[in-house]
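Here is a complete protein record:
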Amino acid sequence: MAATTTPSKPPLILGSASPRRRKILERITTDFQVERVDVDELHDATDPVYSVTHNALLKYEACRERFADAAIITADTLVWFNGRLIGKPETLAQAEEFLTLFSGNSQIVFTAVAMGLPQDKKTELRVAASSVHFKELTSDLIRKYLRRTRPLDRAGAYDIDENGELLIERWSGSYSNIMGMPLGCVTDWLRSRSLCSAENSVY
């Protein structure tokens, strides 16, 4: 009787330079590699869901061109505030401007995740939305936060997981989505494709 072989798992690529997305994925697996993906992102304030899904797919397709035989995860996160889409600040002054605007107000954080295997005919797309409400922020508190936290690689100039208690009064939805990648849908996809056996449910 001929021996049967178990197909080997494809390598898993996280197409992102974000240390927060790496930290999130490491909660369920360390068997992946990180690759930076640079694309021209779209910011359409009239349709935040389309914006993040468009950008996540662009990153996925750019990553797929480089890693044809890999399982790939890419994501895009944007803040939607008062009809305006807000990405990463370009300067510390702009970061301070963003946080001043957020003071005492609520916003929605949208993240789209694109995931796929080499043989998949269609890329899996998931979108998560979480609400964040900010404390009343003084100029001194904002500057204190900016001294403690590097804001320039974070959508909205803040990180809920790093000194977020200085800024944020309350939040609802997926905590990891506010960080930059909703862990729940990623875990579900990885487990359904036998790419991890995580039991972690902290999303």
About this structure: The chain has a mean pLDDT of 91.
